[in-house]
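Input record (Table S2, row 563):
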Amino acid sequence: MIGLISATAAGARARERVAAAWPDRTRVYDGPVGDAVRRAFAECEQLVCFLATGAVVRLVAPLLADKASDPGIVCVDEGGRFAVSLVGGHGGGANELAGAVGELLGAQPVVTTATDAVGVPGLDTLGFPVEGDVAAVSRALLDGEPVALEAEVPWPLPPLPVAPAGQYTIRVSDRLAEPTAHEVVLRPPSLVVGVGASKGAPVDEVLANIEDALRDAGLSAKSLAELATVDAKADEPGIVEAAARLGVPLVTYSAEELAAVAVPNPSDAPLAAVGTPSVAEAAALVRGGELLVPKRKSAGRAGQPAMATCAVVRRPSRGRLAVVGLGPGARDLLTPRAKDELRRASVLVGLDQYVDQIRDLLRPGTRILQSGLGAEEERARTAVAEARLGHAVALIGSGDAGVYAMASPALAEASDDIDVVGVPGVTAALAAGAILGAPLGHDHVSISLSDLHTPWEIIERRVRAAAEADIVVTFYNPRSRGRDWQLPKALAILGEHREPATPVGVVRNASRPDESSRLTTLAELDAATVDMMTVVTVGNTATREIAGRMVTPRGYRWQEEAR
Ligand code: SAH
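Output record (S-adenosyl-L-homocysteine complex):
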């Protein structure tokens, strides 16, 4: 819950806007501010105070205990100009909250935690449990001192400015060993525990068996990703409660699925009871991985048979490939999601000119693998190979990365052992359409005139089909130095089915500093003015120029009647 506190009329108005926007996440604290702040501090995970920072500092100072448990606090000034992350920037989520409140109120978020200011991710914000001297290692990262990364378990991490060796270390490990001085240990969610239990098995017995198994094998419970069992045990209270106490989800699989998993220790008892010769080992291994602890029975209570089993598996680490569209060029047409993915990746793969377009957004330590025009296949293969090594990779393309770009060659290479995320981008046809007016208001296609990878006969057949079907056409890759006859030819084919006066929009470098556009007609377009930085949109037989804009009617009846 986010507690909202204000003192003045202006503060109350801003407070109401936040409360109205997030009705389920916020609670308004009325009454004298001192009391209100103290109550909210005790009851909420986060506070937004529409008060001066000084007032809030004085009120919360006696209440602050520990940055792991204190709420995150954001202050918004009387003018609503700034949303200041005051306390709990990372652990309390105040930095993020300041950003969200800022967006809502049109206020500038003010974030002063050092790691965010210089673009180094906070070690406590990576989404993994972390142990050890976080403060010292963070400071070393910020000061540019050499910090080594030792990944015992390869896991997709955001970029960290690390050196091959150093006095400080970031270890990525699911092993129990305590961090040494000058070390932090990140705990990736790499372990799965398969559990079996007889009906009515007490939670303490189930839990003790899991904890003993992990401890005896030298594994950290903080790396536990999930418990797994058979469908028939989905509601077994001892298992459900054990997962809840461990703070991990319980996933279940059908007996058939588990019966198909090869395990070292099958037995007859579960086969008779639930229809699979193994529950613990099979449920842990069903998604692959390395069996670290084979089936282990619980100690059982005095004189009683063991009621629980478990087995521990280290999951194969899955790299992450984000295929990110950068939009047509302008920074504000790059989506926030694309920006997040660029900052989350430790490896960036792309064409050199696109890398330049977003270089300033990358976090220090990002490994950049750039190549020139024509190296598409190599880029696709590199991106997939890096993800398969367990890295977080972003493969970038201009516009939308799936439109005449890198997504398909990359996914043609990719196997199912990596996670793939696509981030859509504003493709050139849309960027151009918005500049021209509304040329794509009815059915439309894109056709690339590049015959580098596609035989001209196929391109021509598609142009002809679009011409016959009276569809608006946007030509990508319309013309280059070595390819000058294709565009006139394509326009001539369209001209067989459309009037010479059909509107044609030509947009060069949409949304880039040297953007230009013009509206002409099929008869008047001078192909020599078109190059590779251009898209050409040809209207259908209903497209009109209206007040200097290109408009393809949507075809509503009322519009036709009005004509
Ligand atoms: N993935 C890109 C397209 C790559 S093909 C996208 O979705 O936009 C390259 C062609 O796209 C260029 O030859 C040009 O025709 C077009 N193009 C890309 N960006 C453009 C822009 N900003 N303005 C005009 N045309 C553009």
